[in-house]
User: What shape does this take?
Amino acid sequence: VQLQASGGGSVQPGGSLRLSCAASGIIFSNGDVGWYRQAPGKQRELVAGITAASNINYADSVKGRFTISRDNARNTLTLQMNSLKPEDTAVYYCNIRFFLSTYWGEGTQVTVSS
Assistant: This one.
């Protein structure tokens, strides 16, 4: 099982980034997927998630700015991040959960700074 995240980087406040997570070795469509983030000194938190039934939820702090989507045909999870703020700075991780197992991708750094 492999989850490969990409798309992180450094942007100024108000900018945009698009994160992608490519999954392999699993039946992607059967899992609940999501993006989490962890800022220095803080706990990892859920940013956005999509269930296998395509139910979507967002952290209050990103509602209206971030959009999560999944492409089951391409085994890909995407997070479009707009109107980025300095407080969005963190390492972002993709995640997929099944009934008996959970898998994490390696994180990708997002830095929002002027």
In short: The CA atoms of residues 40 and 90 lie 7 Å apart. DSSP finds no helices and eleven strands in the chain.
